[in-house]
Amino acid sequence: MEKKIIYSGIQPTGLVTLGNYIGALQNWLKFQDDENYQCIYSIADLHSLTVRQVPAEFRNRALSFFAQYLACGLDPQKNIMYFQSHVHEHAELTWILNCITYIGEASRMTQFKEKSQKHPDNINMGLMDYPVLMAADILLYNTALVPVGVDQKQHLEIARDLAIRFNNAYSPTFTVPEPLISKVGAKIMSLQNPTAKMSKSDTNANATVSILDSEDDIMRKFKKAVTDSDNEIRFGEDKPGVSNLITIYASCKSISIDDAVKELQGLSYASLKEAVGASVAELLAPIKSRYNDFMNDKEQLLAIAKNGQEQASYIARKTLRKVYKKVGLVQL
Ligand code: TYM
Question: How far apart are CA 139 and CA 135, in angstroms?
Answer without folding.
Answer: 6
